[in-house]
Amino acid sequence: MAHFDYRSELDAPLAEVFAWHRRPGSLERMLPPWERMRVLEWENVGVESARLVLELRRGPWRRRWVLRQREDVEGEELCLEQVDGPFEVWLHRQRFAPTPGGRTLLEDEVEYRLPPGPLGELVVGGAVRRTLQRVFRFRHARVGYDLARHGAFAAQGPLCLAVTGSTGVIGSELVAFLESGGHRVFRLVRRQPHPGAPEIHWSVEERRIDRAAIEGLDAVVHLAGASIAGGLWTPARKEVIRRSRADGTRLLCEALGALERPPRVLVAASAIGIYGDRGEELVDEESAGGVGFLADVAREWEAATEPARAAGIRVVNVRIGLVVAGNGGALAPMLPPFSLGLGGRIGNGRQFWSWIDRDDLVGVIQHVIFRDTLRGPVNAVAPEPVTNAEFAAILARVLARPAWIPLPAAAVRFVLGEMGQELLLAGARVACRKLEADGFGFLHPDLEGSLRFQLGR
């Protein structure tokens, strides 16, 4: 039987650390973003014999991993045992112990046996131990980060929120983060809600929203919108992108503005594309908008929040930069060629890519929900924008690969047309002045640190 142990000291009291692990969303927050893994079932959390089902993916290969909860000791230990999965034996214990100064020692102990016995250990044992080290290092860091952020606003009490776009790269992480902090989160969904699930129906096409269900919410986060990279920008596709943002936002804001008990704050997604292609000019929230399709869409997107603002709701338009996430977003199409050593700059590489780590973006949304000092446009970007050439070099260094194969601008324009020009060849050097002035603390202000965290490197 093999044995693995990882421990760290967290700057939070034991009761809060243990409670965090019991809450909805905590398990999703501990899944490493670079591992293709998702929760299929997790019910009766905290009850002995509760069943957890994960899906593991490696290329076309998929495997269900079924575990059950057992032998928990309230405030001291949690335990998960494999029922069916990739190991012959898997027993994972989490232990919690108080340390001086109101801190908590968190220990993860795993006993496991690889198939098929000694041969499995000989062939892949070292790789499994290295993977476990990466995974649990990430888990402990994520738990510490989340506890600190929740603690910063704990005095303002748990909120009741609604989130649109809750299944996307940003929304899924945001919902899990908020739930792990003890907030009650409703997802606005376009299908019929599942019975008993915290879901609210809305339909942009039919201009319908369940107004009774959104009455009395503390806050709404609006992230829904068709992907700007989901297909070539034909006239029809551009209209889908525009309408998914402007029409959906207007429908939501008109509904919120008509409520008897509207939310205190609406956090509405926007994009730094509103600044257009600005070369080396440093732009901030006071800068004029630019030109181009994305700039036009972003202006219409933000203008559609006016009904909420006119009703007295504090509206924050979060202008999001390129999101660095280990399991999607802008990195998804870049990782395969860069992992093979086939990456490089795009065009001349001098265009600025103003980026933000996904964990920091989740933190920005939490920050603007609670901070009444913020309203209007807020740039959600890291304090250190980089050029495309710098981005390529840093990503290659993190992956320990060269970055010598540039992608010519002419090829980008030929294959992708206007979409390639605006998404890949244009850029803006964007400052996060409002966030910095309001005291927001970035976990990953530099790109290399963000990439290493998101990719487990």
Question: Could you explain how this protein is built, in words?
Answer:
With 457 residues, the chain is of the alpha/beta class. The chain is 36% helix and 26% strand. It has 2 domains: 2-152, 2-Layer Sandwich (Alpha-D-Glucose-1,6-Bisphosphate, Chain A, domain 4), CATH 3.30.530; 158-455, Rossmann fold (3-Layer(aba) Sandwich), CATH 3.40.50. Helix 4 packs across helix 10 (358-370) and helix 6 (235-257) packs parallel to helix 7. The chain is globular. Strands 11-10-9-8-12-13-15-20 form an 8-stranded mixed sheet, with helices on both faces. A 7-stranded antiparallel sheet has the order 1-7-6-5-4-3-2. It has helices spanning 14-22, 26-30, 118-152, 171-180, 211-214, 235-257, 293-303, 306-310, 335-339, 358-370, 388-399, 409-425, 433-437, 447-455; strands at 2-10, 37-42, 51-58, 61-69, 77-84, 89-99, 103-113, 160-164, 184-189, 199-203, 208-209, 219-222, 265-271, 282-283, 314-320, 322-325, 328-329, 352-353, 355-357, 376-380, 386-387, 429-430. Strand 3 (51-58) and strand 4 (61-69) form a beta hairpin.
